Amino acid sequence: MNGAQLLHASAVALDGAGVLILGASGRGKSSLALRLMALGADLVADDRVWVVSRGAALIARAPDETLGLIEVRGVGILRMRHLDEVALALAVDLDLASEQRLPPLRRSILHGVAVPLISGAGHPVLAEAIVAWLRAEEREGGA
User: Fold this and answer.
1) DSSP calls for 9-54
2) Residue 52 phi/psi, 5° resolution?
3) How far apart are the C-alpha atoms of 41 and 32, rounded to whole Å?
4) How far is residue 25's CA from residue 60's CA, in Å, rounded to a whole number?
5) What is the pTM of this model?
6) Strands 5-14 and 42-45
């Protein structure tokens, strides 16, 4: 992909909104993707994600060789229903923790485009919080 960046990440889409899941190896990117898929999300990419800017949007897609595949530790590699690409609405960083009850708005910037960022490390109901954030009619304060 011309001008794209390959990230060690996973991505899912819920109701047309993309979620980029970032974090070091072993942090639970695929596990969070699976939990979000159990809550109705579709797989976009697992383990590696191409991200490219298209106008004011960031677009995520899987590399061709892993399209539709997700690794489930202790189970194997599964072929899943998937989307070819999605515009990102949110980034989640599993390396970052927030001790604040109502954190300030944070953003991740890729290719000069800002996306709201949730600090996900240690969050006890992270998947449910992401679904609620994506479906919220209004958001105050931080992501």
Assistant:
1) EEEEEETTEEEEEE-STTSSHHHHHHHHHHTT-EEEESSEEEEEEE
2) -140, 145
3) 11
4) 19
5) 0.92
6) antiparallel
